[in-house]
Amino acid sequence: MTSNKRDPVLVVLQLSGGNDALNTVVPYGDPNYTDNRPAVRVPEDQVLQIDDYIGLHPSMGPLKDLYDQGKMAIVQGIGYPNPNRSHFRSMDIWHTCEPDKIGTEGWMGRAIRELDPKGENVLTGVNFGRGLPRALAAPEVPVASVGNLETYGVLTGINDDQRGEALDIFARMYSPAIGRSTVTDYLSRTGTDALHGADTLSTAPEKYSSTVEYGNNSVAQYMRNIAQVHLAELGTRVLYTTAPYNSFDTHAGQLTAHSNLWTGASNAVRDFYQDLKEHDASDSVVILIFTEFGRRVHDNGSGTDHGSGGMAFVVGDAVKGGLYGEYPSLATDKLLEGDLQFNNDFRGLYSTLLERWMGLDAKPIVGGAFEQMEFI
Q1: Among 4-8, 32-36, 105-109, 328-332, which is the least confidently predicted range?
Q2: Distance CA 215, CA 207 (A)
Q3: For the purposes of burial, counting CB atoms within 10 Å of the CB of 307, is it exposed (0-12), middle (13-18) or buried (19 or more)?
């Protein structure tokens, strides 16, 4: 699967807030686009054209370059049955693969459990950002969640002797006697895992050297952190980060905000890819970029409101670049209550990544068999 025999790694960038699909993969060749977007549209002469119908937002030049190199797949019309316009519920569905009920396990948490069933590496999954995405959460699956890799650790502000003594006390506190309750045992493991993971991750920045200069925004810095961890060869297989909370929720002032958001995200992905190329480590990584839903077809005068039928991107050396799935119709009689209809179930996207890239059986992870795609 990879020329240098490294284990395949999946990196996920979540565009929090519901990215506007129509102004990202722009159907400039469809008059319905102009009719529905009198105020919030990308002018045809600014679109980075892919063919005579669609193109990318002008701020996505770095991703267009990857597309032109055959390194990026665009998955059109991604979604799920009976779409939900709530941020929380829609993201919960994407994270748990449970569109009909409240899920208890994240799909990536299940994948991490399959990758490391004995929990031998507490860094099999690592998140960068605040909190822990539900996608990574599953019982007895340790996942490190890092706010700032350079300062990540436990009791880093005291000298080595004091820190060693303090960590020993913490370890004993988190190591109850055999026979205690299941909850206590779980807390014990979680605590000691956190200590171990923090100490190991803190070594990643000092091992890292690169000529690539990332941007100052949080997405860029977290992508840099992901590169540092991957290049440190800590056995991490799943790396996750999220654009600032609800930043892609562009109800107002969208034209400027959306342009700035995609400038930051596109540059960050480009820099990350170049960083891995510089270190001869790009062929073991595939990047998934997704959002919880698309937005309404008709603008609201300044922005766009919550909708459905989005787009996803998959980037990497192993990716067969191109367009996958059909662009949803913008014809009025083809819309779903004013939204794009989905035509690619997101669980098929996940299944493709899980089976064709990570080498896992997707069915128990995504909750069934779904049509896979040919981008890997």
Answers
A1: 4-8
A2: 21
A3: buried
pTM: 0.90
Domains identified in the chain and CATH numbers: 9-149+207-366 (3.40.720), 153-201 (no CATH)
**Residue given tokens 């459905």 in the structure block:** 308
Distance CA 234, CA 230 (A): 7
Helix (H) / strand (E) element for 289: namely strand 285-291
Q: 363: buried, middle or exposed (CB in 10 Å: 19+, 13-18, 0-12)?
A: middle
Work out the average pLDDT over 312-320: 98
Q: Which tens digits make up the pLDDT trace of 46-93?
A: 999 999 999 999 999 999 999 999 999 999 999 999 889 898 899 999
Which residue, among 360, 283, 288, has the nearest Cα to 6 in the 3D structure? 283
How far apart, in whole angstroms, are the C-alpha atoms of residue 172 and residue 143?
21
Task: Tell me the Cα Rg of the chain.
Answer: 21
